[in-house]
């Protein structure tokens, strides 16, 4: 059985329930900025319930990446998602990018999130790095703690088996063009985004990529943020996108955890090692060239 | 009687008559920049009269948020808006963001604006923070001075009753996607904006959000700036939007003050407290996780 | 006779022939950046001849704002434009924004440009400030040297008579939305612009504004830069715009100089003084409010 | 025989195979940023094979500009492109902009790349500067090493013969509007790009420019990056663009090397010298004007 199960493209609907975390990670003083905080709380408080209803209506499964801090702040949130039949996965503790942390800090943040989910009885089997900013240490950390997949890299648009020491992870690649952030996010403080795109443009962008991925048999790993895509017109566009995909007849919807299992069991996908760290010495050019 | 009066969506047309204030708040030396000053004065001097005529023609009410400084600089402006049947509301004194002020400064600025409106005989019953940058102190300030509503937060897209100590405010939420600033604003000095969007795109964006809000029964709280939306093609697009909404047959237009009264009297909307200030300690992650 | 001569809208096609000047004004070291310099030289060397041919074909007049430095660097350029029946006007000497100069520097730069045009036998009767960054001193400088109009302010979208001491200038207002820079300009070094818009979008934007201006009887004062709008597809879009305007039947094309004469002779346009410099003291708010 | 061979427009499809180089050139520490590195490695590893297949299917030739560092890191890459019938050309060693290097550094970087291609048996006859940031020294460097053409300048949209001392180069001009970077590139770290455009918009932009260039008989010198345009929907749009051009019937496709030969042999294109370095002294304005 191949990872795609014969489908032209596989869709994983994923929602990064970041709430206030990315803003606070960029500056703890934003806790005082009531307007900005309210902009972020809309995600879990208004967006998530609507998204869950939409997924119910369309009968498609999804994966919710939740920072541990967010799960801690809203104790019932993660389990309420699981109770609706969806997957909750690891999205760091405090939504600080690993590339901005020392290795010891990354480990501590990673484990702190695991502790939160364990305390809440929520089983997590996959991980996505905050800001999609995985370091070279991240895959080993994910593997060491027994998770099955990571979803933070962009080396392909089809899943692959990432060899990490003795074990393997399924890598479910992401891409900025399938992220609602670049299309919709705007805040003046902290300064995020420029113009705000219309849902019609975003629908067109994503439909085109889905069609392209059906041509090349790829993973359409969509990433939406409830504080962004939970807004009314954007939800209607997301509904149209899902209905379009369902109507194609050759697209399979799956949770990331289930896809990871299929990927790790697909013999046509041989394990790939991490690429070696690129060596780039801008000063050596003169000496070497002569 | 519910806040929406049975309508699928409620529309509040609001105009932030900022004139030169936001530019001067970012640097008093811009007073010398005659081109930039003229770009801003277009708002009250050309945009507002055209907007008032458009509202007359279409027979829809609106709310104009006016900084006290602007009302002071153009003595007849606020009353001329009231005389046309619209509401004038509090939009700070000098259009400095509260989040950039010490609490004492925010209070002084807030009260100075109230003094201007009182001196002009203009009754204000609602408030919108400059830059939509309310602090955690802002709601109490609004309630303390007897205003009925605030319109600076984004925790929902339906109005809610905000509990503030012993009293309540109606919160009429805003959102960046219903603001003309991100679509149209451009100045090189101070540097504001990037590309300038076409009115056709903006009309499409806002119509889609109105349709989404009719689906979810929300408040379409549109925010336009006369120095931006007062330009000819943008006014024609705004006219088309209003005509579309009127043609829907299930949309109600109201001034913010009247909506606030309905919100405060709607028993189906229980008071919500301010959310607690988020505690986010990025340093504690290592210690807590072990 | 009114300034608009009974037309629904008046069109002034203007071309700011900036060449290398704005880039060098932002840093003289860019003279070494051959790629960037070549990007700018395209304007006078390729763009201007094509634009002149297009104007011939469509038989419409135009005004070319030329920095003195550019006229000096390419000695035949200004006169070759005049010889084709168009107007050449003053656009500073070195394309440095007046707001970045001390008053004495602004005067020196202004007069140096006049000297260049005088030496070349090119009569100039109007002025546009570099970067549309006029200071409060600029109008007096324009009037003192006997020019008839300025085209750097944005207080209206219809021409007006600007009272300057004992004399008057015609002000022919500009606006960022009728400038090709925000739509097309991109350079990484110096960093200018973000995405590059398609000519179809720009054509739609400008057609909509022309229609809006026909509704409100305004001045459609279009500003194009030959290094931007001289590119093939953009020229075709500009041609379509002009053909559309010609087809309207109620639009009048004129050179700025001729419009200025009509404006100054229109008794329905009473002289407006410069607005007083706004007084904005952000520190006084606390003391005054109490 | 003229350079265009009687075609209305000539198309050179070019692909800048930058991989990790531009990111590492902006900061060697990005080697640790696994997500960003994976975003860049997608180019040679996934994008290039798909592009080669697409070119095969449509039977059109192309030119691949490859930094020497990239060729070194992936030893078989350059030759595999040549083996498919396409051209590989010089695109610096480390993708550092020449304008950011001292002349000695530029030379060393330039020669180091030549050494890599020589060692791999890949003959290169043309050059494109990293970041399209050629200095005034770059053309002499290209000529001195016996290359036939450069493709880094923007002084025209038709090829020209660039006189360099005793010899000549063919200059095949580029332009930002025919570059996929401004349309598609987005990374948060290093910060690149803002919104991500849809392939439908880009197709429309490029088709319009091709039509404009057919009108003016120009060189449509398209620049795509495999890490950007190798994505599924973008490849489909590129396919549509090529099919459109093929369907025009008056468009000729060629490799840059072959075009350069035709340009250098076209007597209707007289050699143009490098323009003199512009002299721009912002301080002299006051003294000279009096």
TrEMBL record, chains A, B, C, D:
It comes from the Bacteria. It holds the Pfam family Polysacc_deac_1. One of its GO terms (biological process) is carbohydrate metabolic process. Residues 268-278 have a biased composition (Pro residues). Residues 268-290 are annotated as: Disordered. InterPro entries: Glyco_hydro/deAcase_b/a-brl (IPR011330), NODB_dom (IPR002509), PgdA-like (IPR037950). Residues 280-290 have a biased composition (Polar residues). Residues 32-113 form the NodB homology domain. One of its GO terms (molecular function) is hydrolase activity, acting on carbon-nitrogen (but not peptide) bonds. PANTHER family: POLYSACCHARIDE DEACETYLASE FAMILY PROTEIN (AFU_ORTHOLOGUE AFUA_6G05030). This is Polysaccharide deacetylase. The lineage of its organism: Bacteria, Bacillati, Actinomycetota, Actinomycetes, Pseudonocardiales.
């Amino acid at each position: 059985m191949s990872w795609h199960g014969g489908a032209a493209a596989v869709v994983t609907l994923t929602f990064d329930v970041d709430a206030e975390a990315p803003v606070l990670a960029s500056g703890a003083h934003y806790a005082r900025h009531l307007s900005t905080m309210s902009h972020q709380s809309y995600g879990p408080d208004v967006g998530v319930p609507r998204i869950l209803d939409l997924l119910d209506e369309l009968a498609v499964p999804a994966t919710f990446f939740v920072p541990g801090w967010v799960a801690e702040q809203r104790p019932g949130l993660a389990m309420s998602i699981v109770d609706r039949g969806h997957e909750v996965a690891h999205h760091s503790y405090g939504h600080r990018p690993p590339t901005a942390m020392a290795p010891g800090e990354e480990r501590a943040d990673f484990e702190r999130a695991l502790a939160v989910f364990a305390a809440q009885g929520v089983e997590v089997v996959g991980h996505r790095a905050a800001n999609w900013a995985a370091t070279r240490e991240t895959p080993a950390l994910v593997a060491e703690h027994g998770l099955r997949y990571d979803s933070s890299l962009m080396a392909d648009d089809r899943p692959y088996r990432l060899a990490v020491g003795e074990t393997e992870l399924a890598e479910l690649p992401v891409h900025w063009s399938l992220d609602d952030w670049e299309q919709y996010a705007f805040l003046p403080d902290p300064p995020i985004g420029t113009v705000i795109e219309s849902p019609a443009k975003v629908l067109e962008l994503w439909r085109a990529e889905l069609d392209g991925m059906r041509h090349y048999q790829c993973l359409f790993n969509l990433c939406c943020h409830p504080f962004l895509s939970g807004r009314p017109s954007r939800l209607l566009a997301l509904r149209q996108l899902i209905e379009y995909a369902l109507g194609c007849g050759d697209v399979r919807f799956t949770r990331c955890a289930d896809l990871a299992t299929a990927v790790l069991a697909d013999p046509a996908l041989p394990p790939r090692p991490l690429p070696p760290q690129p060596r780039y010495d801008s000063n050596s050019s003169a000496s070497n060239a002569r």
